[in-house]
Amino acid sequence: MLELTDAARTTAGVVLLTVVAIESGGAFMLRVVTGAVPATDFQRRFYRAGHAHAGVLVTLGLVCLLLSEAAGLTGLVGWFARTGVLVAAILMPAGFFLSAMGAGRDRPNRWIALLVAGAVVLAAAVVTLGLGLLAAG
Asked: In the predicted model, is pLDDT for residue 137 greater than 90?
């Protein structure tokens, strides 16, 4: 059985609590889809993508947290392997939502940079963890 460090247990607990925020995003999406919140087609697509990325990346982040514990990664590499995907789970949805905000918007604003930053962090984190797992094996 895998024994979690205190840091991993705390991180997992906090991340699980963020699911409530993702649920709130689902309530917002329901309001957008039903027309209660006016949105352009672009905004609907970006809001949907932001909500989906939040849920998927939080789930993947929890899996990566467990895998990094199993690999015994420590130091800065261990921290990044444990939390990088979770950082991306903040940056990428924020990029989708914030770049689509504003009445009648039909293309992303400069906040789209958060999406790009999140994608870079995501790629770097999974490569770090993958290499760490291979090295530990």
From this structure: no
d(CA 87, CA 102): 25
Write a three-state SS string for the chain.
CCCCCHHHHHHHHHHHHCHHHHHHHHHHHHHHHCCCCCCCHHHHHHHHHHHHHHHHHHHHHHHHHHHHHHHCCCHHHHHHHHHHHHHHHHHHHHHHHHHHCCCCCCCCCCCHHHHHHHHHHHHHHHHHHHHHHHHHC
Cα Rg for the chain, rounded, in angstroms?
A: 17
Q: Is a pLDDT exceeding 70 seen at residue 115?
A: yes
pLDDT (tens digit, 9 = 90+) per residue, 34-52?
999 999 999 999 999 999 9
Domain ranges of the chain: 6-136
CB atoms near residue 127 (< 10 Å): 12
Whole-number Å distance between alpha carbons of 18 and 101: 22
